[in-house]
Amino acid sequence: MYRDAKVAVVVPAYNEQALIARVIDTMPSIVDLIIVVDDASQDSTSTVVKTYCDKDTKRVILMRHKVNQGVGGSILTGHRKAVEEQMDIVVVMAGDAQMDPSELTKILDPVVEGRADYAKGNRFINGEAWKFMPKVRYFGNAALSMLNKIVSGYWHISDPQCGYTAITTRAIELLNFEHLHKRYFFENSMLIQLNALGLCVMDVPVRAIYGIGENSGIRYWSTFLHFTLHLFVGFFWRLKEKYIIRDFHPLVFFYALGLLMFPSGLLFGIYLVYHRLWVGPVEATSALFATFVTTSGMQFLLLAMLLDREQGRPKGYRY
């Protein structure tokens, strides 16, 4: 228990026989329940965890998927179990030992103190991630972080792919699990849905841990393309859910006008440049029209983003 709150840690694990023992061994004593979800591993992950279950039947629980459901599916299975066990706060710590257990209280504090419904780690704030994180992964995370700000509406949040998180069981009960992605897009879809629900999210600086034998199955380019598609769909789902269905806000008009006018004006301007270079002169009115539509569209988008940012900012938070 931590500050009168019962804490459960969900450990999603897939083929982590080499590191899962380290995760359990280093789990702080403030954790009331350790829920390891073996996502249909092909190795001895479950066998290793069972030895801990036999030693500490009340604290360590093993759940095993018969079919691989992805990291998101494993986390949701753990969240359901934590709610069933009447925990107050649920933390996620990966089975590959990339999350520092000594930083657990930093993740818990904003949630325990009622300053946030959901707290997540941010490996970029202190600048150390650049030194330790693989460069391709670093730049990929940076690009996705920028896209995620627009899509999720949480402009004060960075490093959305960091899975070191803490959430209240009250917030878990508000989530629609069917709308949460079950694989690598899970963290992003979580932020999108939390914003649609109007819940408070906060970043917490954490240390990046690499080079301890962990294996990443991510294929960077294909993953980035899939993420972009999911972000595009999630963005429009959030606008519909938050600003039309739950509480109408005029920023949807600004987004609609911006998304219509900016690309249209830009494409028309490119066509005029092509026409001028390869065909012949263009009418001045056509050039002015393209400029007007493009700049107006950009202004509508920026205004919509500004309004959206204010809606997703925690009370008392300063950018």
CATH topology annotation of the largest domain: Spore Coat Polysaccharide Biosynthesis Protein SpsA, Chain A
CATH superfamily of the largest domain: Spore Coat Polysaccharide Biosynthesis Protein SpsA, Chain A
Q: What is the H/E string?
A: EHEHEHEHEHHEHHEHHH
Number of strands: 7
Q: Give a quick account of the main beta sheet: strands, pairing sense, barrel closure.
A: 7 strands, mixed
Q: What's the shape?
A: elongated
Count the domains. Answer: 2
Topology:
Elements: E1 7-13, H1 20-25, E2 33-38, H2 45-55, E3 60-64, H3 70-84, E4 89-92, H4 104-112, E5 118-122, H5 129-132, H6 135-152, E6 165-168, H7 169-174, H8 186-196, E7 201-205, H9 220-246, H10 251-278, H11 284-312
Parallel strand pairs: 1-2, 1-4, 2-3, 5-7
Antiparallel strand pairs: 4-6, 5-6
Give a description of the structure:
The model has no long low-confidence stretch (mean pLDDT 89). Helices cover 51% and strands 11% of the residues. The protein has 2 domains: 7-244, Spore Coat Polysaccharide Biosynthesis Protein SpsA, Chain A, CATH 3.90.550.10; 249-312. It has a 7-stranded mixed beta sheet, sandwiched between helices. The protein is an alpha/beta fold and 319 residues long. Strand 1 (7-13), helix 1 (20-25) and strand 2 form a beta-alpha-beta unit. The two termini are 33 Å apart.
